[in-house]
Amino acid sequence: MTTPSLPRLTPVPFAKWDKETRATLLSHLRRPERYLSGEPGAPPMPTVLELFAHHVPLSEAFLTLTDVMASDQSRLEPRIRELAILRVAWRTNSGYEWSQHQRMGGDEGLTDAQLDAVRDGPTSAVWSGPERAVVTAADEMIDQFDVSDETWGTLAASFEPASLFELLFVIGGYLCLATVLNSIGLRGDLPETS
Question: pLDDT tens digits for 61-109?
Fold first, then answer.
């Protein structure tokens, strides 16, 4: 695995966005006013959005998918969604994804012990059977591009079909995003293992 030493694609600063780019990309922020307030301490525009500004139609399509998975249209429990995303982030060495979703996972109910156990994988004693299957499914999709019959059986016994279908898209979608971000050099740092 190679790691770019410098970003391969420079983010497009918010100040250079045209009206269409601003309207499109800002619509995917939960609270854009925080970023646009100009107040001291206002958070900077997320780097990932500045990267998405390179290809707005493609970014709009991808962000719409992720918005559905984080909205009231979602059929998957948010805690399970964040567990799956965090396992993908850990396995793909995507420190950027990890840093964004570790906080979100805690906000959605993952305990500190569970957040730590994401790094250990499915063997950790903190997981329930369905949680272990979610972590295993992420590993299997990363390693073999498929979920095994055994894992599928556990998932199917725990999740309704729509939730199970969405889980596969969460894992696949965030695997795609991690691969893109890693490849262009927006990797970030993962926490040290204990």
Answer: 999 999 999 999 999 999 999 999 999 999 999 999 999 899 999 999 9
53-59: long-range contacts at Cβ-Cβ below 8 A with a sequence spacing of 24 or more?
A: 53/11, 53/12, 53/16, 53/17, 53/21, 53/25, 54/9, 54/12, 56/20, 56/21, 56/24, 56/25, 59/24, 59/25
Q: What is the pTM of this model?
A: 0.91
CA–CA distance, 185 with 148 (Å, rounded to integer): 32
Residue with tokens 């922020």: 29
Assess contact for 146 and 140: CB atoms under 8 A: yes
Dihedral (CA of 55, 30, 10, 91) sign:
negative
Confirm if 158 and 133 have CB atoms less than 8 A apart: yes
Would you state the structure tokens that stand for residue 1, as one six-digit string? 């695995």
Backbone angles phi, psi at 31, to 5 degrees: -140, 75
Cβ atoms of 178 and 97 closer than 8 Å: yes
CA distance 126 to 83: 13
